[in-house]
Amino acid sequence: MATRMILRGALKKRTFFFPPSFSTSRNGSTLVLAEHENGAIKPPSLSALHAATCLPNNDDSSVSLLLAGSGPSLHQAASHAASSHPSISKVLVADSDTFKNQLAEPWAKLVHLVQQRDGYSHIIAASNSFGKNVMPRAAALLDVSPVTDVTGISDSHTFIRPIYAGNALCTVRYTGASPCILTIRSTSFPVSHKSVDSKSDKASISQVDLSTFDEDLDKSRYISQTSRDDEGPDLGNARIVVTGGRALKSAENFKLIENLAKKLGAAVGATRAAVDAGFVANDLQVGQTGKIVAPELYMAFGVSGAIQHIAGMRDSKVIVAVNNDADAPIFQVADYGLVGDLFEVLPELLEKLPEKK
Q: What is the superkingdom listed in this entry's lineage (predicted)?
């Protein structure tokens, strides 16, 4: 990929030039890869759909949604997307047990198959575990370089993405061959209520012809999936996130964070240090190497504020921090800070907050 990058933010402005490569564009349409669950499109994929509408060369008739899986849930999600999301002009459905467990290799081959048939100018997915798994493989099959973790779209081939743990932003100009493959940071493309309003014109639904699809599942296979027992909000989409750090000292003490989250109807988060110490599972990690969150309220207890962690939550609307170190970096980004012992603050909060109904 030939790129032109301009860094701005905490670092000195710099421009990098790379040799250009041949660029082609067969049409101005966009393909969005979507995850679904229980007959509905997942929120990160709705953010990817919103990002697709931000491309200047797109209009209401140029965004296609690709769904894959098997069973009634797949077709329910396709029907709901076709009738409920005005940005979608076409829903492509790949119905096969091959896609039941979202393995990256068959999904990448599916993207390659659809692109070879329809020739999209852009292919977009959320920058979550699904998108990070599939898109690099699809890009390799299509012999293009992806632009990852996009937070802003300037024009059809110019994008903004964070670097250096979010301490700087770079503007990237893509001049490679089509398609332009993007993964977007879902917190930067929030879904408005208008995006999910019902519409009078239903998008067309078509089945992807898999007669020439080569399954080739030798490289990976599905074994099992485990999930936490609690029924709290999803960390990536929660309105409130309560996060604990290494200062909690043990998994037993971390239950204070979990109890507070239950009272607030919040999701539980953790720093990498807390995860590495074994206090909680790694799917609760917030930060550069974990999940990127942007809730309305982010509460951090015993979190020092390493730049890798800040990169994952700095877009939160209101940040509240409790730490016994007045010089902790977390206070530099916090809207409200309390210097105090979390083992005194948390029990008092739990005592005074009413139970969530």
A: Eukaryota
Model confidence, pTM: 0.81
**CA torsion through residues 211, 212, 217, 218, sign:** positive
Cα three-residue angle 294-295-299, rounded to 5 degrees: 110
- pLDDT, tens only, 211-224: 888 766 567 777 87
Block residue for tokens 């609760």: 284
Cβ-contact 348, 329 below 8 angstroms: no
Residue 186 burial by Cβ neighbours in a 10 Å radius (0-12, 13-18, 19+): buried
For the chain, which ranges sit under pLDDT 70? 1-28, 57-61, 192-201, 215-218, 226-231, 356-357
CB 166 within 8 A of CB 307: yes
The binding site consists of: 246, 271-272, 285-289, 302-309, 323
Nearest to 192, CA basis, from 328, 54, 301: 54
**pLDDT, mean over the chain:** 86
User: For 121-150, how does the pLDDT look when each residue is reduced to its tens digit (9 = 90+)?
Assistant: 999 999 998 999 999 999 999 999 999 999
**Domains along the chain with CATH numbers:** 29-207 (3.40.50.620), 240-351 (3.40.50.1220)
**8 Å CB contact between 286 and 308:** no
Beta strand 36-37 with 318-323 is unpaired
